[in-house]
Every structure is written in structure tokens, then in C-alpha cells.
From TrEMBL:
EC code(s) of this entry: 2.8.1.6
Entries under InterPro entries matching the protein: Aldolase_TIM, BATS_dom, Elp3/MiaA/NifB-like_rSAM, FeFe-hyd_HydE_rSAM, HydE/PylB-like, rSAM, rSAM_sf
Highest taxon of the lineage: Bacteria
UniProt keywords, alphabetically: 4Fe-4S, Iron, Iron-sulfur, Metal-binding, S-adenosyl-L-methionine, Transferase
A matching Pfam family: BATS
UniProt-recorded Gene Ontology molecular function terms: biotin synthase activity
Top EC group: transferase
Cofactors named for this entry: [4Fe-4S] cluster; [2Fe-2S] cluster
Radical SAM core domain: residues covered: 49-262
Protein name per UniProt: Biotin synthase
Length: 344
């Protein structure tokens, strides 16, 4: 069997790893430090020291889906639901641009209230502010994605959640794994920058399955990959599940950076929920993006995917200063560009 240190060294140069070796690296913690350092070097070499900030607007917590892990699932009667009106979304985007954000991410549950026409109105108005727009609003048809792209959307986030079809069926009842993959393909065909990702630590998810996820992201040539630990939510059927581990998620980020040197990888909010330095540790293990929340007021608390979400009591102005400080403290800088992927 190959020595894991040589697996890391080799991947740093070739950006390739066998599935078996990925599994072993996830399971073994002896070489974590070397893995994180190698990922940090690859990050610096390919995407540099700049950290891209994306201003995240969580504009509706209404969702027609029923994902087992998620607090926004339609069967959850314990949360107060909200929709931010279109003009208010545009205003939040304008404020975010004022704070220096060069990308606006519009995220919501799968809420059909926001028709393509309404979304086009919002997107075209935000687009006038000279920013990149990322959508994270779930599964739509090819024609819908096409219309949104034409209106000005640049990128789209849609996690595969897991590449294991059986686990997907158990976690996302009533949804089609095939259709989810089709959505990802459609977005690519339409010229979006495509972001995907998975949850780490779902019930019955094996390390082999996580290795498959990583190889899937590479195979489809994803432009962005965001991963985070699954955090059990008391208002869901998975309330008594174990949940994901921070260190495993961090290693997965590092392996992703070794294998996909030029993509954008966020240090996700869920990472900081499990570890108070979660985002900076992740930024030092391969990540180069952070997506601070720019939603205001009561909405922040109500977008409750999982418990313990950070920043729910803070303002957008506070968060931009907070995260900028953290980035500078680790010797990095906040980017001033829109932060598209530079394919190498
Ligand atoms: N823990 C962590 N992440 C979650 N998400 C949904 N529910 C949870 C949870 N309980 C993630 C999903 C979704 C993203 C917007 O939030 O992966 O794609
Ligand atoms: Fe809806 Fe997304 Fe939550 Fe699933 S993960 S219930 S699609 S908001
Ligand atoms: Fe929101 Fe630190 S980024 S409080």
C-alpha cells in the first residue's frame, strides 16, 4: 500500500488521487497537518492570497421540498415563514454593494412565488450595480435557467448533497437524483459557473461515498464546490442523528483543493458553527471564498437550515468588518474583483 505522505505529495503535483487513497486519507488523521499544508500551498499557487466575499441574501425560507435534514422543509410547522419583497431584495443588494461586495448570492427555499418574471426583475435591477449574480434557488427547467441567465445571472449553486443514489432517496424524499444531475448539466450547458457540493456526515454516509462525491465534483469540472458538515436540526426527522465532524469536512476541503486546484471553494458557515475558528481554519486548508450574510433583521434568524447558525444576531455591517478582520489576521486579503474562476 502506498504511503499516505507520498499520496499527498503526488497529488500536490498531479492533482490526482485514487479513490482508495482518498478514503484512507479521510479515515486516517496522522497526516492531517501535511494534507492541510499541501492544500494551502496549492491554493496559494493557483488562486492566490485573495479571498472573495459573496454577499448572501436569504430572500425566502418557504420551500416546497421536504429534505430530511433541513429546517426549511415544508413539513416543519415550527418556523415562521417569510418572503422578502422584490424591491426590498434589490435594496439589500444595493447595501451589500455599498459594503464592497462584488458578488450577490440570492438564496431561498424552492419557493414558486418568485416566478421567472419576478426573478428577472430582481436580477436585471441588481445587475445594473455591476456585480456578479449567483442564484441558489433549487431545481428549475432548462428554459427557466435559460431565462434567468439571459436576465443577468452568472452563477448557480445547487449541491448534489450526496452522489449515493440510495442515500439521496432516503434524505430527499420525492426528489429525483437523475433530475438533480440534469439540472447541474443544464446549468453548465447554459454557460453558468456551476457550484455544487455535498453534506458531510449524513446518517449512513460512508467515507467511500464521500470519496465518490469528491471524484464527481472533479469529473463534472465544477467551478465551485461548497461542502459542510450536516448539523442535526431538532425540527426535522434527523434530530437524533449524529451529525458531521468538523475535522472530516476540513479534510475534504483540503483534498478537493489538491484535486481541483483552480476552482472556488468557500469556507462555509456550517464549518464555523462547529468550530469557532472554522472559516479561517478552512481558508488555511484550501478554501478561498466566504459568503457572509447580508440579510437584515428578523429574517436572519428565520433562515434556520440548522441550529447554531452564526451571525444571526449581527448586522451586515458588522459581518463585513468581522470577516475582513479575520482574513487580514491570517495574512490574506479581500479581493476587489468579481472572482470568477480562472481556469488553468
Ligand atoms: N446541516 C447542514 N447543512 C444543511 N443544509 C440544509 N440543511 C442542513 C443541515 N441540517 C444545506 C444543504 C443545502 C444548503 C443550502 O444548506 O446542503 O444545499
Ligand atoms: Fe428546501 Fe433546500 Fe431545505 Fe431541501 S435543503 S428543504 S430544497 S431549502
Ligand atoms: Fe458575521 Fe463574524 S461574519 S459576526
Amino acid at each position: 500500500m502506498k504511503n499516505l505522505l507520498s499520496v499527498i505529495e503526488n497529488a500536490e503535483k498531479s492533482h490526482y488521487m485514487e479513490k482508495d487513497d482518498i478514503v484512507r486519507l479521510i479515515k486516517e488523521s496522522k497526516y492531517d497537518d501535511e494534507l492541510f499544508k499541501a492544500a494551502d500551498r496549492v491554493r496559494e499557487k493557483y488562486v492566490g492570497n485573495e479571498v472573495h466575499l459573496r454577499g448572501l441574501i436569504e430572500f425566502s425560507n418557504i420551500c416546497k421540498r421536504n429534505c430530511m435534514y433541513c429546517g426549511l422543509r415544508r413539513s416543519n410547522k415550527n418556523i415562521e415563514r417569510y418572503r422578502i419583497p422584490p424591491d426590498k431584495i434589490i435594496e439589500l443588494a444595493r447595501k451589500a454593494v455599498g459594503y464592497g461586495y462584488r458578488t450577490i448570492v440570492m438564496q431561498s427555499g424552492e419557493d414558486d412565488y418568485y416566478t421567472v418574471d419576478i426573478l428577472k426583475y430582481i436580477i436585471s435591477n441588481i445587475k445594473k450595480m455591476d456585480v456578479a449574480i449567483t442564484l441558489s434557488i433549487g431545481e428549475k427547467t432548462f428554459e427557466e435557467y435559460k431565462a434567468l441567465k439571459k436576465a443577468g445571472a452568472d452563477r448557480y449553486l445547487i449541491r448534489i448533497e450526496t452522489t449515493d443514489p440510495e442515500l439521496y432517496r432516503a434524505m430527499d424524499p420525492g426528489m429525483s437524483h437523475e433530475n438533480r444531475k440534469k439540472c447541474i448539466r443544464d446549468l453548465g450547458k447554459l454557460g453558468y459557473e456551476v457550484g455544487t457540493g455535498c453534506l458531510i456526515g449524513l446518517p449512513n454516509q460512508s467515507m467511500e461515498s464521500l470519496a465518490d462525491d469528491i471524484l464527481f465534483f472533479k469529473e463534472i469540472d465544477a467551478d465551485m464546490v461548497g461542502v459542510g458538515p450536516f448539523i442535526p436540526n431538532a425540527d426535522t426527522p434527523l434530530k437524533d442523528a449524529d451529525g458531521g465532524k468538523f475535522e472530516i469536512a476540513r479534510k475534504i476541503v483540503a483534498i478537493m483543493r489538491l484535486l481541483m486546484p483552480d476552482i472556488n471553494i468557500p469556507a462555509t458557515t456550517a464549518m464555523e458553527t462547529l468550530n469557532k475558528d472554522g472559516r479561517t481554519l478552512t481558508l488555511r486548508s484550501g478554501a478561498n471564498v466566504v459568503m457572509p450574510n447580508v440579510t437584515e433583521g428578523i429574517y436572519r434568524k428565520l433562515y434556520a437550515l440548522y441550529p447554531g447558525k452564526i451571525c444571526t444576531g449581527d448586522t451586515p455591517a458588522h459581518c463585513v468588518n468581522c470577516i475582513t478582520g479575520k482574513i487580514v489576521m491570517i495574512g490574506r486579503e479581500v479581493a476587489s474583483t468579481k472572482g470568477f474562476r480562472m481556469k488553468m
